[in-house]
Amino acid sequence: MVLVAAALFGVNGTVAKVVLSSGLTSLRLTEARCVGAFLGLTLLALTRGRSTLRLARREVVPIATFGVVGVALVQLFYFLSIHRLAIAIALLIQYLGPLLVAVWARTFGHEHVRRRIWVALGLSLTGLTLMVQLWSGTSLDGLGVVYALISAVTYAAYLLLAEREVARRDTVSLLAWGFFFATVFWSVVQPWWSFPAGVVGRTVSLQGSLAGIHLPVWALVLWVVVLGSIAPFSLIVAALRHVSATRVGVMAMLEPVVATVVAWAWLRESLSVVQLLGAAVVLTAIALAQTAR
């Protein structure tokens, strides 16, 4: 489930990039993504019974925290970071999140984190560094790095909060409420009456090797909502019933590998031998983490 979710997130990055070429800003796309996911997950939850959506008073604060911090702020600070940094650099910094989860589990959760998990985390970050090629003279924007670091912290919080809350209620209703509170957050930050509705009616080229194909922006946004949000978020949270947050974080590092390969095949972004080696190292780390039962 985690690997499929990471693959969907990786493909979603390129789809989102095509959407953003239409003139829709990254923050507005995130807002639409949260609202669409909330509506879709709520309808899905209702088909399983209205009782699944009941929210006890004691659950309001923790699930609201999950929705705002673990859903809305992860995306907010990620998009703020890629505004100032290359996407690959921002992803590398964000994926310090799984390391923070392991540190939390060992320090505050008093869990025994096996040595191979730490090795897997080190290999993953090494592989991502090779893919990004930090030594190539890339200049880093200080504020962009701060945003990316905050994104890493909120990503770690998302995994830990989801792991705790999924033990109390089912995956679909948890995410429905999480995206509800994320939607409320975005509605305050960016009121809906100012949403550029005319943009979603435009038709855009899929660019790169698919440049001859044109689709309406709303269809691509629908992809981002269903296959880029509802499906992968549900898979990640459901997986936390069976796999620890630390291992989920390591395996989710498949996302930048998939994102890089998709960008190469679709948008014709080149891959060097070193980047391919980095992808192989990340995959090795994921396989190693899988052996830490």
Strand content: under 5%
Secondary-structure element pattern, one letter each: HHHHHHHHEEHHHH
Question: Poorly predicted ranges (pLDDT <50, ≥5 residues)?
Answer: none
How many DSSP helices? 12
- Average pLDDT value? 84
Radius of gyration: 19 Å
Overall tally of domains:
1
What class would the helix/strand composition place it in?
mainly alpha
DSSP E strands, number: 2
Widest sheet, order of strands? 1-2
- End-to-end CA span: 16 Å
What does the largest sheet look like?
2 strands, antiparallel
Summarize the structure.
The chain has helices at residues 2-20, 26-47, 57-84, 87-94, 97-107, 115-132, 142-165, 171-189, 217-239, 245-251, 254-266, 273-290, and strands at 203-205, 214-216.
What do you see in this structure?
The model has no long low-confidence stretch (mean pLDDT 84). Helix 3 packs across helix 8 (171-189) and helix 6 (115-132) packs antiparallel against helix 12. This protein is 72% helix and 2% strand. It has one domain. A two-stranded antiparallel ribbon has the order 1-2. The radius of gyration is 19 Å and the shape is globular. It is mainly α and 293 residues long. The protein starts with a helix and ends with a helix. It has helices spanning 2-20, 26-47, 57-84, 87-94, 97-107, 115-132, 142-165, 171-189, 217-239, 245-251, 254-266, 273-290, and strands at residues 203-205, 214-216.
